[in-house]
């Protein structure tokens, strides 16, 4: 879209965040958070707004005290997603977020906001390892095929440093996802170790598995208002 988010007349108002920013405060994945979810009482109205905003995800807050939230891409509703939960936990200073799949616990640690969730809550994604970070960098767009794809390679295996890019391939206008907490969660779980992931143009995601089978995912969050939604 080509107008300020603050100027499109969103009932209840909307906060626009950047989630998983790099160490320099740049990049991160854009997120819209509608604090007054009741202004959009049904799935159709929420889906329409998410499509209009055009962010990879938009969150509707149904109960800020209990942390009950509802997540949408421009084309579908999600039972779980990483960067929307990290961003919403930071914005509303929440310790628990309620989702249909279960409770997601959150914490603040200095400049990082963390969530803890189970890998089985993540919608299906293909994790594809490349031989080098340079090969990941060289991609000019989504590789051929269908379904959500997360390509990654080691930058420094001993240090747990990963280079990654994410391609939803779902036909909703999001060709590449700048920073993807859910895929980072799956990769950390699959490898069984803590990871420091550089994704997209320069976003940073931290992830670490816990003994109880959950995985913590964390990163920096910054407020992006006012902003061009397509910027």
TrEMBL record:
GO terms for molecular function: catalytic activity. It comes from the Bacteria. The active site is at residue 57. Transmembrane segments: none annotated. Pfam families: PhzC-PhzF (PF02567). This is Phenazine biosynthesis protein PhzC/PhzF. It comes from Streptomyces fulvorobeus.
């Amino acid at each position: 879209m080509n107008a300020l988010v603050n100027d499109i007349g969103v009932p209840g108002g909307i906060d626009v965040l950047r989630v998983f920013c790099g160490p320099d405060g740049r990049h991160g994945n854009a997120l819209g958070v509608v604090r007054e979810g009741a202004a959009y009482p049904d799935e159709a109205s929420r889906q329409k707004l998410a499509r209009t905003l055009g962010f990879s995800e938009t969150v509707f807050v149904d109960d800020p005290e209990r942390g009950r939230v509802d997540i949408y891409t421009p084309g579908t509703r999600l039972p779980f997603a990483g960067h929307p939960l990290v961003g919403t936990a930071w914005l509303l200073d929440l310790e628990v977020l309620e989702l249909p799949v279960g409770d997601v616990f959150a914490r603040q640690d200095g400049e990082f906001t963390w969530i803890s969730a189970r890998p089985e809550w993540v919608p299906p994604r293909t994790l594809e390892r490349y031989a080098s970070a340079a090969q990941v960098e060289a991609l000019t767009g989504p590789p051929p095929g269908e379904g959500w794809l997360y390509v990654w390679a080691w930058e420094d295996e001993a240090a747990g440093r990963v280079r990654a890019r994410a391609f939803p391939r779902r036909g909703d206008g999001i060709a590449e996802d700048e920073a993807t907490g859910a895929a980072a969660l799956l990769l950390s779980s699959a490898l069984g170790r803590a990871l420091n992931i550089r994704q997209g143009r320069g976003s940073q995601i931290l992830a670490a598995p816990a003994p109880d089978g959950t995985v913590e995912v964390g990163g920096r969050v910054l407020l992006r208002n006012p902003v061009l939604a397509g910027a």
